[in-house]
C-alpha cells in the first residue's frame, strides 16, 4: 500500500456535487493498493499514519511532536490508484503495479473500517468515482509512505 498524507486545517471530497466526506483539522490521506500488498499492510500503514508526530503540541507552533490522535484531529481517506503510476517508460503512466479494482476496494474498505475503530472522525471519498478533493494544507506537511519499505524501516 502507498499513502500520501497531508496535514490540513480542513478537507472535503465531493462526488457529483455531493460532499461524501469532510474533516476539520487533521490528515488527508490518499491511499493506493498494490498487487504485492500483504494482508497486514493496511494495519501497519494505519498504525504508522496515526502515530506520525507531525502536529505541534497545543499552544506551540514550531516543534512537531504530536500525532493526529494527540490533537483530536480527523482523517479523510481518498482512494488513489494513481500512486502506483509508473512513468519510467514513455509519457503515459502504467498502472500495472496497482491492485485490480475488486480486491482494492475490499482493502480500502478494510482500511477505513479499521480507522473508524481508532477513536477519531473518519471521512471518505467514493471508490472508483470522479472526485473533487478540496483541502487547506498546513505547513505544508506532506509525507509519503510505502509498505514495501517496511522490511527495512523500524515500526
Question: Could you walk me through the main structural features you see in this protein, from its secondary elements to its overall organization?
Answer:
The chain has helices at residues 41-51, 101-116, and strands spanning 2-15, 18-23, 26-32, 55-56, 64-66, 74-79, 122-124, 131-146. With 155 residues, it is α/β, with parallel strands linked by helices. The chain has a single domain (2-146), classed as D-tyrosyl-trna(Tyr) Deacylase, Chain: A. The strands form 2 sheets. Strands 1, 2, 3, 6, 7 and 8 form a 6-stranded mixed β-sheet that branches. Strands 4-5 form a two-stranded antiparallel sheet. β1 and β2 (18-23) form a beta hairpin. It is globular, with a radius of gyration of 15 Å.
DSSP summary, beta strand count: 8
- Count the domains: 1
- Give the structural class: alpha/beta
Q: CATH first level: which class?
A: Alpha Beta
Judging from the principal axes of the Cα atoms, what is the shape?
globular
Mean pLDDT over the residues: 93
Could you give me the name of the CATH homologous superfamily?
D-tyrosyl-tRNA(Tyr) deacylase
Can you give the helix content as a percent range?
A: 10-25%
CATH names the topology as D-tyrosyl-trna(Tyr) Deacylase, Chain: A
Q: For the report, how would you describe the main beta sheet? A: 6 strands, mixed
CA gyration radius, whole angstroms: 15 Å
